[in-house]
Amino acid sequence: MPAAAPPKTQADEQAPLAPLTGYTVAVTAQRRADELATLLERRGARTVVAPTLRIVPLPDDEALRAATVELIREAPDLVVATTGIGFRGWLEAAEGWGMGEDLLEVLESSKILCRGPKALGAVRAAGLIEEWTAPSETGDEVVQLLKERGVDGQRVAIQLHGDPAEDFIRTVREGGGAAVPVPVYRWTLPTDITPVQRLVDAICARRVDAVTFTSAPAANALLRIAGDQAADMLEALRAPAEDNGVLPVAVGPVTAAPLTRLGVDCVQPQRARLGALVRTVASALPKRSRRLQLATGHSMELRGHMVLLDGDPYQLPPAPMAVIRALASAEGRVLSRAELLGHLPRGADGHAVEMAVTRLRDAVSLRSCVETVIKRGYRLNLEA
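Structure (tokenized):
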């Protein structure tokens, strides 16, 4: 008869934490926002969904119709397809106007350049054949190709993707070609910007751990809505992990460009895909956690809105979490009530510091983790 298995300990029964447990991640996208939030939540994150833009389709827009008529009347030599949704929308709009077959015939006679795989997929789904696709899925590569091959005397149709695509248009015109913009859809601010304003407040107060961006217009819109708070928000996005900075994560270099120009270094996946973006967040945030060894022999890890004490998770309200972060950054140095007060939400007073310390001690069931230094303040009781 086999020997009985040893009884399970508490450590054996404790399920491993998901990589994003304890972290709050903001989603600024409109398209596929729910999908992105779900993928992050499956990895343990708490999400804040605040789309900074909304897409306005233009199936009945006169500018789109006029561009389509112009291209059917005089076929382009080159067509630049920038997005899958935009290219499909263009074909659907033309079909609705009774111009679908004529537009396809024009596109079949043209050389099609694709900015990325989504545009490529839409082109092939329409039964068309592309001549070239950008290897790293960036607009800069399209611009470089146009410069290298030359566009002098050529008509180039450029399917816009919410932004004016000024680099494409300028390159064509400076190269002696005729650019025909095709405005399939445009971006505009949300009807209600309140959720975005709350997100700006949360970033400035560093109550979120990461912000994700899937398009350059979304990043620009966040900066625009931030208004007078833009400087504080950028400071939070630039700050390192040890200063409780908010991690900016962009799906690719084009998306990151508006923030990069302002000195914000965005983390990016190697491939511009939603899944890769989520994996990047799940890899980067845990590396920013702070690990401490207390003098009592206990280990502590700070991650987002959560404290792990000897591996056990304790979710803390904002004020106690702000206090433990400040004390951890002080690395055992005593912080006065006035110093700690500066880390609490606006309007808090000295009594709020005492309450936050009390709630912190009670929350982690370890009163000795924070030591009171009489007439001076508080310090984290760290191992020497």
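The first strand starts at residue 24 and ends at 27. Residues 290-380 form a domain with the Arc Repressor Mutant, subunit A fold (CATH 1.10.10.10).
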